[in-house]
């Protein structure tokens, strides 16, 4: 018996309590998440209606999905919302973090104020911003009462810009979390780097752009993944603010899945749409996993 073979039992029983405690989580992941995912993908190739049934129809559900105007609008809205959310939440969150990193007075108070919206549910946020953007008693009404009678600001009632009204509420709620993540990354930068940059006469903006931000790469990647995951599953804000209206102009994939699975009683179509959402998540997660772990031994 080799020394390596003799060590195997001791390694097997090392941290035994922790391994036993992790069994429910492992079973939950395998049975519910992995099993549910496989089940959904399999039934997306069937013609299931009210109840699931194994009557395979190949790619018919996916062909029907990609010629449905409602789904195409949902994908377009998700692309616009996602691109704007990624860019603006990162920029605003980083700027707020950079300001708070200047050791300003009442920093804890400002940090709490900026982070507080994230503690609210998306339904509450959606309802609040539905009132704020309502032209009868919201921003438009207030500005017009001040004398600017021609002022118009009703994004939730204009089908061409309704997705931007939802974006405003999402930025208000999510930017605080991005700020905290960015602030944690900034606080992890060695103070000697700032001192060296000042000695060399490097402008502050160049220090941030060419030195600090590259050093915050792990924080930035993690933040991007968190934001992207929230983008793909956006649902509550849309339901609370517009319910997909006017018409279908603010439809998103998550709402499409819900409507077809529980209202239209077309499980096959709902499963196909949710599988496409899963594919979107994989497209986000795989590059992140490669960047974080792929190059390490």
TrEMBL record:
Transmembrane segments: 21-45, 78-100, 112-132, 161-186, 207-232, 271-291
Biological-process GO terms, alphabetical: transmembrane transport
Gene3D superfamilies: MetI-like
Localization of this protein: Cell membrane
Keywords, comma-separated and alphabetical: Cell membrane, Membrane, Transmembrane, Transmembrane helix, Transport
Record's bilayer topology term: Multi-pass membrane protein
Protein family per UniProt: Belongs to the binding-protein-dependent transport system permease family.
GO cellular component: plasma membrane
ABC transmembrane type-1 domain residues: 75-290
Domain of life: Bacteria
InterPro entries the UniProt entry points to: ABC_transporter_permease, MetI-like, MetI-like_sf
Protein name stated in the entry: Carbohydrate ABC transporter membrane protein 1 (CUT1 family)
């Amino acid at each position: 018996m080799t020394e390596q073979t003799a060590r195997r039992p001791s390694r097997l029983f090392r941290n035994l309590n922790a391994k036993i405690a992790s069994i429910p989580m492992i079973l939950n992941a395998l049975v519910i998440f992995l099993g549910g995912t496989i089940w959904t993908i399999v039934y997306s190739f069937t013609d299931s209606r009210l109840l699931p049934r194994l009557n395979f129809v190949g790619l018919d559900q996916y062909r029907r999905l990609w010629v449905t105007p409602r789904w195409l609008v949902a994908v377009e809205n998700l692309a616009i919302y996602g691109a704007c959310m990624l860019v603006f939440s990162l920029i605003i969150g980083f700027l707020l973090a950079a300001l708070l990193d200047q050791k300003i007075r009442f920093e804890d108070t400002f940090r709490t104020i900026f982070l507080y919206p994230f503690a609210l549910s998306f339904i509450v946020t959606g309802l609040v911003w539905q009132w704020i953007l309502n032209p009868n008693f919201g921003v438009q009404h207030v500005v017009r009462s001040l004398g600017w009678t021609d002022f118009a600001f009703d994004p939730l009632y204009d089908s061409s810009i309704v997705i931007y009204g939802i974006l405003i509420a999402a930025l208000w709620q999510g930017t605080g979390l991005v700020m905290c993540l960015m602030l944690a990354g900034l606080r992890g930068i060695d103070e000697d780097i700032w001192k060296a940059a000042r000695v060399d006469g490097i402008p502050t903006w160049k220090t941030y752009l060419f030195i600090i931000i590259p050093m915050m790469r792990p924080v930035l990647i993690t933040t991007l993944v968190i934001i992207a995951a929230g983008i793909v599953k956006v649902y509550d804000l849309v339901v609370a603010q517009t319910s997909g209206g006017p018409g279908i102009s603010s439809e998103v994939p998550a709402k499409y899945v819900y409507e077809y699975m529980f209202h239209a009683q077309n499980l096959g179509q709902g499963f196909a749409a949710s599988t496409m959402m899963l594919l979107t998540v994989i497209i986000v997660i795989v590059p992140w996993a490669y960047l974080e772990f792929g190059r390490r031994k």
